[in-house]
Amino acid sequence: MKSFTVNENDSGQRIDKFVSKVTSGLPKSLLYKSIRTKKIKINGKRAHEGDMLSMGDIVEMYIPDEFFSEGSDAPDFSKVKIQPDIVYEDENVILCEKKPGVLVHLGDEGDRNRAAASERETLLFILTAYLANKGEYYPERENSFAPSLCNRIDRNTGGIVILAKNAVALREIDEAIRENRVHKKYLCAVHGKLEGEKTLTAYHRKDEKRNTALIYDAEVPGSRKIITAYKALAYDRENDLTLLDIDLITGRTHQIRAHMAHIGHPLLGDGKYSNNLQDRKKGYKYQALWSYSVGFEMAGTGLSYLDGKSFYVSGKEIGFLSVFGNFDYKVHIAGQKKRSKR
């Protein structure tokens, strides 16, 4: 028998979710059978599938020991010296700028064959170590929670990723993302000339086997509507490239990359949705795409202090901006901030 005392980060979740997190390799069929056969109890009484946990509850599990890890599996975070590039941080969340080439978490990009040791290369691992080393996260004190990413961006895309430091913040941000109350803006460089502003609508279907997005002008079985708005900011005649500000109104897998390629303007350096051989010869090995801004609508939530606020990267890491000599990133951000206050 294993016994757990529900802490603040465990509370507010269903008993079945809690059990699945504190066990390892427990089949769902056995989990629910254990609940039905009274082998899982809350405060000495039989648990039911829909029971919600509260702080201080005692959860007892009469299931085989093989489904519980022996000792602590937490790595030695003190050996991690990489410092994340923090855009904003408070007691609940971190906004971190990810560099191209870095995985947000293990197994991302559909790559199921990455070695377990590669976990140390991920942004999630670096941020977890950052919190552990500054005394804000103690793995040994947690039953079911670890710092968690609320959004992800592709391995070869740069920009802002949101991390929740506690379970309440994670639920609040996740709900806001589902309700389109977290607004992400991107800068990208595309082949060809585009002018003005336009809102594009299409239909998106993910090819799971190839980890690519398929874009259609009309709805097809299994597709979902996507909306991508852009504004042309600058044009480089020599290389025939346009700098775009993208307002990601919906957020699907590879939406910007696939949508822009669909209209005949693939991203600079993107080898998945265009032939980037010539781009690579010029030194562009990653797609020219950067999540430069995140804004929040959080009124009436526990994170209401973020309501109406937007956060921006410094711009110093966005290498492809150098192509557009007349574009001033700082002036662009100042304009964004001015408009948001109206």
Q: Which short descriptors sum up this protein?
A:
Pseudouridine synthase; 342 residues; 15 strands; alpha+beta; eleven-stranded mixed β-sheet; Structural Genomics Hypothetical 15.5 Kd Protein In mrcA-pckA Intergenic Region, Chain A
Structure description:
With 342 residues, this protein is of the alpha+beta class. It has 3 domains: 2-67, RNA-binding S4 domain (Structural Genomics Hypothetical 15.5 Kd Protein In mrcA-pckA Intergenic Region, Chain A), CATH 3.10.290; 77-178, Pseudouridine synthase (2-Layer Sandwich), CATH 3.30.2350; 182-340, Pseudouridine synthase. It contains 7 helices and 15 strands. It has helices spanning 15-22, 28-36, 123-133, 167-178, 255-262, 277-281, 329-340, and strands spanning 2-5, 40-42, 45-46, 58-61, 86-89, 93-98, 148-149, 158-164, 182-191, 197-207, 212-216, 224-236, 241-248, 289-296, 310-312. Strands 5, 6, 7, 8, 9, 10, 11, 12, 13, 14 and 15 form an 11-stranded mixed β-sheet that branches. Strands 1-4-2-3 form a 4-stranded antiparallel β-sheet. Strand 2 and strand 3 form a beta hairpin. 33% of the residues are buried. Mean pLDDT is 91; it is low at 109-117.
